[in-house]
Write a structure and sequence with these properties.
- With 353 residues, the chain is α/β, with parallel strands linked by helices.
- It has helices at 21-34, 71-85, 124-130, 187-197, 212-219, 236-244, 261-268, 281-284, 297-306, 312-323, 325-340, and strands at residues 2-6, 38-44, 52-57, 91-94, 111-115, 136-138, 152-155, 174-180, 201-206, 228-230, 246-251, 273-276, 291-294.
- The strands form 2 sheets. A 7-stranded parallel sheet has the order 3-2-1-4-5-6-7.
- Helix 3 (124-130) links the parallel strand 5 and strand 6.
- Helix 10 packs parallel to helix 11 (325-340).
- The longest helix is centred in the C-terminal third of the chain and has 16 residues, at 325-340.
- The protein is globular and about 60 Å long.
- The model is unreliable at 344-353 (pLDDT under 50).
Length: 353
Amino acid sequence: MRIAQVSPLYEAVPPKLYGGTERVVAHLSDALVELGHEVTLFASAEAQTKARLAPVRDQAIRLDPAPLKSDLAAHLYQLSEVRRRAHEFDVVHFHTDMVHFPFFEDMAERTLTTLHGRLDLKDLPEVYRRWSYFPLVSISTDQRKPLPNANWMATVHHGLSADLYEPSLKSEGYLAFLGRISPEKRPDRAVAIAAATGRTLKIAAKVDQADRLYFDEKIEPLLLNPLVQYVGEIGDHQKSAFLGGADALLFPIDWPEPFGLVMIEAMACGTPVIAYGCGSVPEVIEDGVTGFIVHDEAEACAAVERARTLDRAKIRARFEERFSGHAMARRYLDLYTRLTTPVRAQWSVTEPA
């Protein structure tokens, strides 16, 4: 099958440091190639991929040192290139939210759009009502709640290459927090849990400019706690050691997380996840098997004490079964096949595949 993958341009594919959507696109593209398909990736020029790269920007936007940049202009140029070459592909798979809708109206039935972000924004319902004929994929069933009547074709959970992370069957006694410093990720809860249990907490996270004030006022003072070690932003090559050495990953979120890629990164390393039961968490974590789902600090602290009782080899095995790159790619291939079958099977707009 000839498949185009259209990635956002904010981060490299895969990201050099923090980044979710572009990381998923990277692993999906590689897995599809490994399964024997012809994949073209529309992304920035530094992408590392097994697919055929169609570079549409010299480098990803976030780490580009140019002081003045236009993410809209970059993505419009990308879409023009995809449109120019659209006849070359059986399916064009977009990961760029809804920006492509006006340009691909005449071939919507040959496109698939995976929505990677939160959907409870004021202006979204009218967009998905106006362009209701574009087939959509959610990354969790919970993500759909604000738009239950959108044209959902399936839910496909994220996956990662099984070779990327090295599992560790023995931890080193600390707790980990990985991702982004922001109010909805609640690093303050992670610090409180570590303090209450007397455990060292290692924080590997980036600080966006939008969250700088929150970091300065709310989080930086907490880093004075001798139990807390702030590592900063890390890349994939550092995650096996960082996550594999932890007794547990703390995921104390306070928002409707659409997926939470860090949870399956931890599972790939054999590390249990202690997560607050928001958003996609109950779909990703198997309570008592790959981690614990909690609802307050007391439950989280109790889960910290129980984390070492979980079988780290089984956690890794569940990652491979549910969240490997090949598992994700096969689910998408089922959808591509349904899109390209001459008389398409009828699919529900509400039930996930």
